[in-house]
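All the exercises in this workshop are built on plain-text protein records. Sequence and backbone structure share a record, each on its own labelled line. The structure tokens are whole numbers drawn from a learned vocabulary of backbone shapes. The record below serves as our worked example for the rest of this section.
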Amino acid sequence: MAIQTNRLTLAPATVELARAEINNGFEFKRLLGASVPKNWPPEALTEALPLFLKLIEAAPDKVGWFNWYALAQADGQSPPILIGGCGFFGPPCNGAVQIGYSVLSEFQGQGFATEMVCGIVKWAMAQPTVVRIIAETEWENPASVRVLEKVGFTATGSSADMRGTRFELLAEN
């Protein structure tokens, strides 16, 4: 199961991929079928990788409700390149899921984050148990706010840690 957008393939994390990402870079590249930049993973994800692995190991049948790898499509002669990641904080709870996303610095400002978020939002909204998607971003990250607004999210208040804004997108949108 992968999600295709105009320029990206979003590949869901599996137990095998998540283990390789942490323990064996060569195997990670092989399983992903992509070039992996030296600065992968983004700083924001480094500490979270073991947690994501535990979550995926605990629910291997819930592929799609955790990490997705964003691969920029190749020119036909080169393999795709891993440019970012997105995903959910777990399966729906009371009809809601929360998303997060990150793009490596050298690929920022090119619309990849918007394309990535659109892709997983469409996938999530196609699932019968999802009625609302939540995202939180810090105030000092206006690019992330723009991504959410472009995708159709609406600001609904302060984030849980009070350092940013909470956004929501309802299924009827």
